[in-house]
Amino acid sequence: MSRTLKKRIKHWIEDLLLNGLLTLMGILLFPLKPKHLTALSNVLGIFSFHLLKKYRKRVLHNLALAFGPERDSKDRMNLVREIFIQFALTPFETVYAYSHPFDSFLRKIKIQGKEYLDRALSKGDGVIAVGAHLGSFTLIGARLSLEGYRLNLIINEGNYPGLWRRLGKYQKRMGQNPFPLKPLSTSLKKSLNALHRNEILYLIADEQQRDHGIPVPFFNRVAYTPTGPALLSLKTGAPILPMFILRRERIPHTLFIGPPVKIESSGDMKKDIERLTIAFTKVIEERIKEVPTQWSWLNRRWKHPPQTSP
């Protein structure tokens, strides 16, 4: 059996298992209350923290890159433990929200900065919502759909197309329009059409992109960052609005919608794409600093692309 075939079989089995896990989570979480999700994430997060040594080391390494060695070892470990707990809470919230689409859990998420969104949409060019793997990021589309907004999002199906297709069905039920990243020509066309319809295009822009990203500062280090939001904004005139749902203690989650990320045009498209990418990356960094335990530090954010031969 070839290596490629073995890999495909492995991903197929994993896809089935993840779909099964999603079904089980839906059954177990359906009768619960939102307050129980935190207790479940504490158990799973602490268990994962102790079991997954490889990922614990990666989180520690990324924290050291971002913040330096100023924290003592005990503080760093407490921070990592909380990061695992917050990371575990995300799938619980996602499954619960899509199992209770019109429950008060979603409606209790406060929206701050809605005026920025309404003002941007009034211009008729659509809106590019830039987000990150921060807080309850999977609930942004669901929350906005309850307010009557039409949100489009690109899904990178990767190795688990069955799982992502199923999640896509849940998103469609909530009035969202998910579509796959590949083929790129098709996703680009759908993105442009969404903006032409004066809708919201939601893009996650905090992942390391080795193939088509550009190097920009992120926590004072070079990180290869996707330029899609900047390119689409400059080509269509659609403003970039940062959007994040952050978790707060004792008060409901809050969807923060920021003012448009702007730069002064230089007339040089390549230069302006870089400057706009730097600008929205800076906004993401500032939000992560505000609630560092709610960001996914598992990503190899500062890994550089391999050098190509001349």
Describe the structure in your own words.
This protein is of the alpha/beta class. It has one domain. The protein is built from eleven helices and nine strands. The protein has a seven-stranded mixed beta sheet, with helices on both faces.
List keywords for this structure.
alpha/beta, 9 strands, 310 residues, 14% strand, two-stranded antiparallel sheet
How many strands in all? Answer: 9
- The rounded Rg comes to 20 Å
Count of discrete domains: 1
Question: Which structural class should the secondary elements be placed in?
Answer: alpha/beta
Report helical residue fraction.
40-55%
> What is the ordering of alpha helices and beta strands?
HHHHHEHEHEHEHEEEHEEH
Q: Which regions are unreliable across 5 or more consecutive residues at pLDDT < 50? A: none
